[in-house]
Write a structure and sequence with these properties.
221 residues; alpha/beta; two-stranded antiparallel sheet; 6 helices
Length: 221
């Protein structure tokens, strides 16, 4: 994969731009790769060069990436004012219901249909989904779709007005991080959620945090 600047707009030229209509709603979806389908849902404020780079990593790992355009300018590096405006529009949008508790965002119904559609095109045992921050919880709701095999919640933030969301984000982010740690060690690990440490594995526990450059220190609670 060629090296790309994260400070310049990404033309997304190695993705196929498709207009996909599901449940009577059309959205642009960027598709690339071969293999089982993985739906990559962008973080705020849209499909930035960083999000596109991540989608390419997933693609190059042997998957077909479906990256729907949900908000913002596709491939753009937005400025602070533009990013704030995109966030504000999404917060009040009936499609996302960012402030609503105990109910799903309507867009997740379309995303579940996209998972079913992608599974039909790519086959395999099922579909994966990765939600990032604003779209983090979308991956959880997508579990209602039978073809959804592996939802990953990366720092989910909704609902925005629920303080418990911080705890939910922390807890749900632990699993993928521990998975990466287990892969790095080449063995299984056993996590104690109450103590927030790995049982009987000092080497693995050392990897739970990185050494800080002096004079910075990790805050102790």
């Amino acid at each position: 994969m060629p090296k790309r600047s994260m400070k310049q707009d990404d033309p997304l030229e190695d993705f196929t731009r498709r207009d996909i209509t599901l449940d009577g709603v059309s959205k642009v979806v960027y598709v690339s790769g071969a293999g089982p389908a993985v739906i990559v849902m962008t973080e705020m404020p849209g499909i930035s060069p960083h999000v596109a780079r991540f989608a390419r990593w997933v693609r190059d790992a042997g998957f077909t990436v479906y990256m729907p355009s949900l908000f913002g300018r596709d491939g753009a590096v937005p400025g602070a004012e533009e990013g704030a405006a995109i966030f504000q529009r999404a917060c009040v949008s009936a499609e996302f219901r960012a402030l609503a508790s105990n109910e799903s965002s309507p867009v997740t119904e379309w995303l579940r249909s996209l998972a079913r559609f992608a599974h039909g095109e790519c086959g395999g045992p099922g579909v994966g989904a990765i939600g990032m921050c604003f779209t983090g919880n979308f991956a959880l709701t997508m579990m209602l779709e039978p073809s959804m095999l592996a939802p990953v919640l990366s720092q989910p933030s909704l609902p925005l007005n629920n303080p418990a969301g911080i705890e939910i984000a922390h807890r749900s982010s632990v699993l993928p991080l521990l998975g990466m740690l287990s892969w790095k060690l080449g063995r299984s690990i056993e996590w104690d959620g109450d103590k927030e440490q790995i049982n009987n594995d000092p080497k693995a526990n050392q990897l739970l945090q990185r050494p800080y450059r002096s004079p910075w220190k990790y805050p102790e609670a």
